[in-house]
Amino acid sequence: MFSVTSMSSDVLKDAFIATVSRDYEKAVNVIRSAVSTEHAFNVEELELIDHVYSCILNTSHYDESLIEVCWEWIDAIERRPRIADPRVISSSQLSIYYAYHTICRVQERMPKRVTYPQTRTDTWNRITQSFSYLWKAATQLWKAYELDRLDVLCSWSYLCLQFADAVTDDVLSIIETSMESARSVLSSTIVVENSHQANQRVCTVERNAKDCRALAEKYGRKLLPSSLVKQEVITEVVAADEEEEAAEEDEEDDVTGEEEDDEPLGKKRKEDL
Fold it and tell me: For residue 4, what is the DSSP state?
């Protein structure tokens, strides 16, 4: 079912085997050990991680534990170093979307506390961080009309709708502007492979953005039109992420006193992301 291509994959395969025997405590401990290493997970390894956390979610009976599992799942996928190639981005964005979707639904059904608005805002800020990275990667890996890139935009727009009580002007503006750009390319290009599916995704993004604005207004929030918003959120989030990563690398160099000439096999930092 899964290909095993490295030492980390061998370790992660143990986690998969543990889920088969329903030893979920062992499975998640194996995942945690793998996540604590400096290995960059490839798509097959990320699928193993997804499988383990999906199994744990299916056996979690308390809302608090569901949310905890989702956060740990997101952290496992997003921990550095990350491989920025098409298969990894395409696979991980779906998993990250599902985890945030689950968090949203659980938050909504839990008893509302005084801290609920802040909790939603904090979750939205984390979504912005996650999808700023994914969208930056998507714009570098795929053309405006390609399905994988539009899938990232669709997922982001669905989360905008689900978090209409916390969504921000700048993110919604980026989504709407990117949607119009894709529509323009699709309408001006004579032949585009999978054009029907691409147009469907553009329509989905448009509907989600429109519904998000309407729902936000019901919450008493007035979001600015895209034309009035400065779209700097991706640049700011990615720049901050790069600065943090550079600081960690400098700290490692200070400790070791030397630099590696080559990165381990299968390890690739995100470079421009």
Answer: -
- Are 150 and 205 in a shared domain? yes
161 shares its domain with 234: yes
Greatest mean pLDDT among 49-63, 86-100, 236-250, 252-266 lies in 86-100
Give dist(CA 266, CA 238) in Å, integer. Answer: 23
CA distance 253 to 256: 5
Is residue 49 a contact partner of residue 16, using CB atoms and an 8 Å limit?
no
**Which CA distances in Å does 171 have to 6, 113, 215, 237, 238?**
38, 27, 16, 12, 14
- Please indicate whether residue 204 or residue 188 has the higher confidence score (pLDDT): 204
Residue 175 structural domain: 142-240
Mean pLDDT value of segment 102-107: 97
Q: For the chain, what is the domain count?
A: 2
CB burial readout 134-167, b (16+ within 10 A) else e: bbbbbeebbebbbeebbbbbbbbbbbbbbbbbbb
Query: What residue type is assigned to position 254 of the chain?
Result: D
Give a yes or no: residue 235 inside a domain: yes
Q: How far apart are CA 83 and CA 273, in angstroms?
A: 10
pLDDT in tens, 213-232: 999 999 998 887 766 666 55
pLDDT-wise least confident of 1-5, 152-156, 254-258: 1-5
Tokens 């979707």, residue? 101
